Amino acid sequence: MTFARLRIELPDHPGALAAASRVLAAHGLNVVEVSIHEVEGQRAVDEIVVHGDRPLSSVELGRSLTAAGADLLSVAPCDMRGDPTVTALTWVSETLEHPSRKSSLATGVRLLTGIDPVHICSADEARQWPIGAMALRDGSPVVQRLDRAPEPLRVHTAGDSGVWVLAAPDARDASFVVLAARPYTIRFTATELNRLAAVLDCRRWLALVSDRVQPDVQPSAADARVSLAGR
Question: Which residues contact residue 13 at a Cβ distance below 8 angstroms, ignoring those fewer than 6 apart?
Fold first, then answer.
């Protein structure tokens, strides 16, 4: 069974998502998850996770969606998605132990924002690119259209029409900067930027809590079952 994450732009009016869903069904795709993103103007961007029994033809699907008034922006393979609440809480509990690790930040951004791929670099490394220096100076995320992405992201952004690049410091006095880039046809949405801000805020609070409190180690549910079984 094949899972894929589709990014579809469609008119922001009643029935548009239903029309796109009928197209997906006609191509043998079952909708597993829908995330509706806010976009300025009269069109919205939906991120839809689907699965089917055969490989997905993005060309044929794109034509069918266009005929229904929608545009297929991207297709990416993905694993079966878990419950988003469980995913978020698991990240929080795992990050609480080592909130300052670069890997925890990368995992949170990938799992919870929809921004993927992503590159996490040090503040010093980010300053070598103008967009990174601007984000650090402003202390807030910056999104720009550039001719080329920063070097670590170029492998993900082939194309001649330019790219959208995002740079977001992890704090006002930043240790790390989140970098991401996309082809010009796939812009970063307000929903993704709000999610990113929430992840960064949560990570900062987790760092404060971790510095002040060391939680008692409690046995997990699995450990408890093993203990009871041994009695």
Answer: 42
